Amino acid sequence: MNSEHTSPMPLTLPPRWLLILFMSVAFIGFIDAVYLTAVHFLGQTPGCSLLEGCEEVTTSAYATVGFIPISLFGAAYYLLVFLFTLLAADGGKRGALVAAVMLTWVAFAVTLVLIFLQLFVIKALCLYCLISALTSTILFVMGIFLLHYKKGQSVL
Amino acid sequence: MTEEQSSMGGYTPPHNTSELSKKEKREFRRQERKDEQRRAQKKGGYKRMFMWAGVAAVIVLVVYGIVIGVMKNGSNSATPSSVDAVSQTDWVKGERTARVTIIEYADFQCPACKAYYPVVKSLSKEFSGSDVAFVLRHFPLRSIHANAESSSRAAEAAGLQGKFWGMHDLLFERQGDWEKLRDPKDTFKAYAQEIGIDVARFESDMDSDAVKDAVNAGFASGISAGVNSTPSFFINGNYISNPANIDEFRTHITNALNASS
Questions:
Q1: DSSP secondary structure string, A7-62?
Q2: Which has more pLDDT, A43 or B218?
Q3: B134 vs chain A: nearest CA distance in angstroms?
């Protein structure tokens, strides 16, 4: 009788599970970026570790913009993608999903630059930075799919 | 007004809808839908409010957890505890019988070690050799620094001709010149010439078993002490977390001197 009232998501949005998956990837990226930011501000005086090259990457000249670590921008980006997608899933706001997906384009471009710097300039790879590169790439690919999805398909 | 009537938001439906005209029936159904929608919106509004509050709480908890975790990890990362005493094979700046001994495990290709190099050098000039001895042990991080091993051998080989600290200084001061070279040997030979040692012997010593063993011994000593990063400092055998600045380092040394007097 009242199904039209209990389903807030309009037919133009992808299925909820897909949005939740998108949000989950963004949240993993958020945790990773917050960790790197916390290490930047609270961690010990950096040294070189036997196990990984994170110190070389995170203490390089490319790791900060002024005094702000790039990871903080990353944390803000992942949080925005998460919240925009939640807004889309909860309130059926298609514009919020489009905004989230557009953010992933910018982030993917930044990711390509950062991976290039790690491989060819700093010549060291940081595991946590690679996790972030992976999540932003997944979000970018999923974002294209989500935008394409809304054009004709819906499972609702 | 009956209970059913009150739930309709004040609208009183007629007892028998069959008596109504089509227009009235439409109005009745429209009003019913409106009431239903209002109730659903009210219920949904609370649900959404709780959901967003829950999301905000989870985000805050996650950030808090990570911050606490990093702070805790920072204070616990001082895994090394104690280290072997200074031996005859160690490279020492100062007297072996000094009251305070500072042992540094270092990798010449490590940027952090380079950052600490002027600090340690300044402190070694500030304190007399009879009070404080500075020791350097090799801890080449071969897995992440391609030229760590060869630079350690270069310092060791120069040491065989009495110029360990001269090569040590050049390696740190010019780290940027050789760290990314595919084969830094020619650069190291140029350094050997600069510090005035026999270059041919230096080249041959760099590949000798004695030099390789000396570098490996330093690394093994670090591993047995629990060292997992460079630089790692020990004062009188006890590990200290890397001082944030020269003043903090100086305080460590002064405390150790006071304790030994």
A1: --S-TTSPPHHHHHHHHHHHHHHHHHHHHHHHHHHHSPSP-EESS-SHHHHHTSGG
A2: B218
A3: 19
